[in-house]
Design brief:
- GO terms for molecular function: nucleic acid binding; RNA-directed DNA polymerase activity.
- Its EC number is 2.7.7.49.
- It comes from Tenebrio molitor.
- This is RNA-directed DNA polymerase.
- By secondary structure, the protein is of the alpha+beta class.
- The chain has 14 helices and 18 strands.
- A five-stranded mixed sheet has the order 8-7-6-9-10, with helices on both faces.
- β2 and β3 form a beta hairpin.
- About 9% of the residues have low confidence.
Length: 434
């Protein structure tokens, strides 16, 4: 009772000091006005028979925050709670502004609605050995020889795969295997990798620079940027599991069989097996007899005559599949917000330890320092909070750190807290003038 009485006294005083509500109170002494009612020193609004306390402008934010922070509810739920006892003009827009600037909500909630960002296919070129996708798979069961990982290389055009058992994921082993390939096939023009330590090390970057290879790193936690290698990785584990049921520690002995199977299997995007497109022949196996050798010989002759047309057909097939994938993927997406250097954002948490389901889904604030590509950004940490000091992110893994613009219904990034504050003050001053 004491708390309620203190609140009502505070509300009554604030109503009396609010210029707009003071005018309404004076009018009510003369005649009725728009369902407003003045009783016991308090101004109410009669809504369908329910008397709601009219909240003066200075207390609006306090009342909305109390309702929202009771459970960090959505705009709709917060509105329902406020409307049970109080009346605030333009309530929904004011709730949106407060909820969109609530730091716990920014960091803890997932992004709603369609995911941002469209699929942007990488040009595969028009011939083999121009672009490699590379990655490590593992750790797997460690064996006596020390092998623990698989280094995978995929030719982007033909989908041909090379698999190497490795003891570590360091750049020395990566460079050694790439040099082995170089001695047979030469260097690619481009290598696409994730941001693993082996591929971001100074030694690997020096190697690529010396060999005049363009190195492209995909954005953190956006595996679709290296989609070809991701699909192969999902295939390798089941195959190795089935082949090494008797002794899982001998998985490396079956790696060549897996590589052979991948390269000899029909691939939808090129309408043939990788080995056929790469070499012009199917992979020869021990069970194949002379008849198959004759067929392969004929196929080689045809391939030599029609090599260019076959490669043009493969390029067309790849482009058709990319268009189809884009169409399907983009139906569930929307245009990304465009962030500028200096904007404050929250970035999606990409690493979860055990028993961490209750941790915030986003980290922040971070400041955008550079735009590195389509919907890709470099960001740096602002203040002392959890998360890496510098990292990369994509638009669909980011959201503005506040600054809701109620006029057009969009969330926009900050260009500094001071700028947002000045803009809010300017809008408030304009509303009061009007």
């Amino acid at each position: 009772m004491s708390i309620k009485n203190a609140f009502l006294e505070k509300l009554s005083l604030a109503q009396q000091n609010d210029a707009h509500l003071k005018v309404i109170t004076e009018v009510l002494k003369i005649k009725p006005y728009k369902n407003f009612v003045f009783e016991k020193s308090l101004l109410y609004k009669d809504e369908d028979g329910t008397k709601l306390l009219v909240i003066p402008e200075k207390m609006e934010e306090e009342i909305i925050k109390l309702a929202h922070e009771n459970g960090h509810f959505s705009v709709r739920k917060t509105k329902e709670l406020v409307q049970r006892e109080y009346w605030i003009s333009g309530l929904e827009e004011k709730i949106k502004k407060i909820v969109s600037n609530c730091v716990p909500c920014i960091l803890a909630e997932r992004k709603s609605g369609k995911q941002e960002g469209f699929l942007n296919p990488i040009d595969k070129g028009d011939r083999p050995l121009q672009t490699y996708h590379v990655d490590h798979l593992g750790p797997l069961s460690q064996i006596k020889k020390g092998y623990k990982y698989i280094f995978a290389v995929i030719d982007a055009f033909t989908k041909f795969v090379w698999l190497y058992p490795t003891k570590t994921t360091n750049s020395e082993e990566v460079i050694r295997h790439l040099k082995d390939q170089q001695s047979i096939f030469g260097n690619p023009k481009t290598i696409i990798s994730d941001r693993g330590a082996a591929f971001t090390s100074a030694k690997f970057e020096e190697y690529c620079a010396e060999e005049k290879i363009k190195l492209v790193h995909i954005t953190t936690d956006v595996p679709r940027g290296n989609g070809q290698i991701e699909r192969v990785n999902r295939t390798i584990v089941p195959l190795l599991t089935k082949l090494s049921l008797d002794d899982s520690e001998k998985w490396y002995k079956h790696l060549r069989k897996v590589q052979e199977a991948l390269n000899s299997t029909y691939h939808r995007s090129i309408a043939r097996s990788p080995s056929e497109l790469f070499f012009g022949v199917t992979i020869r196996r021990t069970e194949d007899l002379k008849l198959k050798e004759m067929i392969e010989e004929e196929f080689v002759n045809q391939f030599i005559e029609d090599r260019q047309s076959l490669r043009e057909e493969a390029k067309r097939k790849i482009e058709e599949i990319q268009i189809e994938n884009c169409r399907t993927y983009n139906k569930k997406r929307k245009s990304s917000l465009k962030y500028q250097v200096g904007d404050l954002v929250a970035i999606k948490r990409t690493q979860f330890a055990p028993c961490s389901k209750l941790l915030p889904k986003f980290l922040g604030p971070y400041r955008v320092t550079n735009r590195t590509g389509i919907d890709r950004y470099e960001v740096e940490k602002i203040g002392n909070h959890e998360g890496p000091k510098n990292t990369t992110s994509s638009a669909d893994q980011m959201k503005p750190f506040g600054a809701y613009d109620g006029e057009d219904g969009r969330d926009v990034g900050w260009k500094g807290i001071a700028t947002r504050t000045r803009a809010a003050q300017a809008r408030t001053s304009e509303l009061r003038t009007n």
